[in-house]
Amino acid sequence: MNIHKAAINDQEKIAQCHRASIKILCQNDYNKNEIQNWLDVIQPYIYKNAIEKKLLLIAEENDEILGFGILDIANQELNALYIHPEHTNKGIAKNILAKFESIMLEKNAEILKLCSTLTAFGFYKHHGYIEADRPFHILSNGTKLTCIKMYKKLKDR
Question: Containing domain of residue 143, as a range?
């Protein structure tokens, strides 16, 4: 497995991974209508900004995307971390998260923020993230998804 920066030509494969992750892994935490509306907004073009202006890392093996993450360095925020359902529990999410935390430490960031899905809450909690709030994340089509704002102190002052 190789974790590296995504390129524009990876957009379709990232979208496929993202859709599979939502459809399978999130089905126990969100209802069918929420899942379908969420899937409707997952189109390849939505990753262009992240590839060009943020840091979008992909975990890849044999030309298949196993997972991906998006880090907004300027805002000290993890925007996304999704793993293909056929590749969970292999340490992929942990490795991507560790890379992002290391990058933020190199940038002298004190915290890393994120808005977790209900599905990923336990993962982030296990990795030291603290719950701050439970707002809605509003998708571009108006769908409201419950999420959990979390943060982790990367270093003490």
Answer: 2-153
Predicted TM-score (pTM) of this structure: 0.96
CB 140 within 8 A of CB 49: no
Question: Number of folded domains in the chain?
Answer: 1
Question: Taking Cα atoms as reference points, which of 37, 56, 50 lies closest to residue 138?
Answer: 37
Q: What is the CATH number of the domain that holds 10?
A: 3.40.630.30
CA distances (Å), 70 to each of 53, 55, 94, 156, in order?
Answer: 10, 6, 14, 24
Q: How far is CA 42 from CA 38, 39, 47, 92, 140, in A?
A: 7, 5, 9, 21, 10
Q: What is the pLDDT along the chain (157 residues), one digit of tens a residue?
A: 999 999 999 999 999 999 999 999 999 999 999 999 999 999 999 999 999 999 999 999 999 999 999 999 999 999 999 999 999 999 999 999 999 999 999 999 999 999 999 999 999 999 999 999 998 999 999 999 999 999 999 976 5
